[in-house]
Amino acid sequence: MSDDRSRMPLREAMAALHRARRADDMIVTSMGAAREWMALGAGPLDLPLVPSSMGTAPSIGLGIALAQPRRRVIVVNGDGAMLMNLGALVTITAAAPANLTLILEDNGIYEVTGAQPTPGSAAARADGTNVDFLGMARASGFTSVFHFAELAEWERAIDEVLAATGPTFVLLDVSSVPGSKGPRSPGPAAARALALRRTLSPGVV
Amino acid sequence: MFTGSQIADLFTSMGITHVVSIADSTLGPWHPAIEQAPGLRLVRVCREGEAWAVAAGLYLGGATPLVLIQCTGLFESGDALRNVLHDWKLPIFAVIGYRSYLNQDTLPGDTCLVFTEPVLDAWRIDYRLITTPTQLDEIRQHYVACREAGRAGAALVAEGKA
Question: Residues B129-154: what's their mean pLDDT?
Fold first, then answer.
């Protein structure tokens, strides 16, 4: 990272969410967030998106939110993954699910491949500035938009954030985890998918 | 080849709850009828790779989605399609418009005719080619067969222009 932004540790940011989530909340995590979430302990309503198609977590979360309109659906995505699927910001706000929260954890790098800067980070940009994810979210039409760089602020506000009328966008400035690896699949994907569908919709074939 | 109301009635009879789609000049005119059909919701996406992921989420959430895209969008869909259909093995069904199949007036030599079916084969998608109006019910029949087998599938619907 070449900018001097204050950043919170990813693990602690995720731990705060882990404590704040309700038992019936659905949590979708990808890449580094999935790795950290599984280390904290994933439950039957959690979807660590491993294996993944990078960038699709917000779209999968949108689908779940539309199918389960009375359940809070929380997606945690990385900045590199978000850049792969920026149109998802617009797709989400077009459908406008009030029960969807998209948390973007921004560390400015592709962490699991060796910390190369993303094209959105100041380090990789000709003008030396970070892209404005908050501005993108606002311009796309997210109903509620939040930004946190300090862990204590995130911890204080998290209940209010998760209770906000969605679609909600949350930008967290997080520090990288040096030497970290990608998440490992917790088990056969097809069996996990079937179990999740049955958990979310008992009785559906 | 088909009207919007024919397609909306077909999807309703198949038990579809959400149609995840990007328009082309054949599929787009179906959208109003899909939007107006009781029990069907049209979900508009920005690129076709998103469509598979949104459909995956809908399926995981207990809904019965269908992906409605042009074959050019199939080409764009690669990694998302791989993940949804082959990693997670979700039985998502798609209706895919086959650009220029009926005529090449707009795009003479359209390479969609070269690549569409080999790409479907490469992704191991069990598809049926629909080229005449009399085949409408074959879409439903193939969907039912795929659903009962718990596998993904597609109907490749011939189009006449870009």
Answer: 97
Contacts of A66 in chain B (CB under 8 A): 18, 41, 43, 54, 57-58, 61, 63
Range of the domain at A122: 8-200
- Domain presence at residue A53: yes
Question: For residue B100, what are the CA distances in angstroms to A103, A169, B38, B114, B142?
Answer: 42, 41, 32, 11, 23
Best mutation site among A27, A60, A73, A99 for testing chain B: the one with the most B CBs within 10 Å?
A60
Q: State which amino acid sits at residue B120.
A: L
Contacts of B115 (CB under 8 A, 6+ apart): B71, B75
Assess if residue A1 is contained within a domain: no
Residue B71's φ and ψ, nearest 5 degrees, are: -60, -30
* Interface contact flag, B79 A60, Cβ < 8 Å: no
Range of the domain at B70: 4-158
Q: Does A199 touch chain B (CB under 8 A)?
A: no
Question: What's the pLDDT tens digit per position in B77-126?
Answer: 999 999 999 999 999 999 999 999 999 988 999 999 999 999 999 999 99
Residue type, A57: A
Q: Least CB-CB distance to A63: which of B47, B54, B83?
A: B54
Domain count, chain B: 1
Quote the DSSP letter at residue A117. E
pLDDT at res. A114: 87
Q: Tell me whether residue B152 is exposed, middle or buried, using C-beta atoms within 10 angstroms of its C-beta: 0 to 12, 13 to 18, 19 or more.
A: buried
Mean pLDDT over B3-21 rounds to 98
Residue of A nearest to B77 (CA): A53
Inspect the interface and report whether the beta carbons of A68 and B87 lie closer than 8 Å.
no
Q: Is A81 on the interface with B (CB under 8 A)?
A: no
Domain presence at residue A50: yes
- Does any domain span residue A135? yes
**CATH number of the domain to which A181 belongs:** 3.40.50.970
Its ipTM equals: 0.97
**pLDDT attached to residue B53:** 98
Query: Which mean pLDDT values do the consecutive 10-residue runs of chain A (205 residues) have?
Result: 77 97 97 94 94 96 98 97 97 98 95 91 95 98 97 98 97 89 89 96 84
Residue A182's pLDDT is 83
CATH number, position B24 = 3.40.50.970
Of B43, B59, B84, the CB nearest to A197: B59
| Contact list, A53 vs chain B (CB under 8 Å) | 49, 53, 79-80, 82-84
Three-state secondary structure call for residue A51: coil
